[in-house]
Amino acid sequence: MEVKKVTASHGWQWIRGGFDLFRMNPVIWITLFFVYLLLGMVLSLVPPVGPIILNLLAPVFMAGFMLGCQALESGEELEINHLFAGFKQNTSQLITVGGLYLVGIIVVAGLVFVTTGGTVMSEGLHDMANQHETPEASGGMLLAALLALALLIPLVMAYWFAPTLVIFHGMSAVEAMKLSFNACLNNLGAFTLYGLISMVLFILAAIPLGLGLLVMIPTLTASLYVSYKDIFAQEAVA
């Protein structure tokens, strides 16, 4: 597949395009996310299996959202059934994407712990016992956070387009994650701007009792589809 390189300004265009898709049927978009949130809450009540299952199925649900975006773009209706459309095709590869991402998260957590965890934990326990925070503990926590961020960014890059590539192009999980990473790497400027604007919008959306998130979360989800259409030149087969 051909991966296009776009200018940094496209990061904002993706968000604007996502909002345009949201505006086509805001009621169903919000309903879809409430259903997804409810499913997540139910699974979270069954530890430790529930959260693992939710992580494995997250790409399946994301694929359903992408199919919903495609339907809207084609002039069709967005439906509740789109949330579960990922269970009808390439489901095993979508679950594999979730599994690889989950393994990546565990590896990152392990590396952070091995590198800084022992020191941070001992200093943190010492501070709790003495009810004060030392500069050493603060520095350790900052180092752990920066290391985690540095390791998570490549993982997120590999995950970003993977569900979309699997559901639209029938790729294997590994192929999709490799291509997703390369696509993000070739468009770092656009993704950096996208990330910065998204953070600002999330903060603003959370101010009015979090009500703005009802618009912001669907918009950013739809923006993923817009970014996929912008970067990948070939048409989807689904």
UniProtKB/TrEMBL annotation:
<feature type="transmembrane region" description="Helical">
    <location>
        <begin position="52"/>
        <end position="73"/>
    </location>
</feature>
<keyword id="KW-0812">Transmembrane</keyword>
<dbReference type="InterPro" id="IPR047798">
    <property type="entry name" value="BPSS1780-like"/>
</dbReference>
<feature type="transmembrane region" description="Helical">
    <location>
        <begin position="188"/>
        <end position="217"/>
    </location>
</feature>
<protein>
    <recommendedName>
        <fullName>Transmembrane protein</fullName>
    </recommendedName>
</protein>
<keyword id="KW-0472">Membrane</keyword>
<feature type="transmembrane region" description="Helical">
    <location>
        <begin position="94"/>
        <end position="121"/>
    </location>
</feature>
<feature type="transmembrane region" description="Helical">
    <location>
        <begin position="141"/>
        <end position="168"/>
    </location>
</feature>
<feature type="transmembrane region" description="Helical">
    <location>
        <begin position="26"/>
        <end position="46"/>
    </location>
</feature>
<keyword id="KW-1133">Transmembrane helix</keyword>
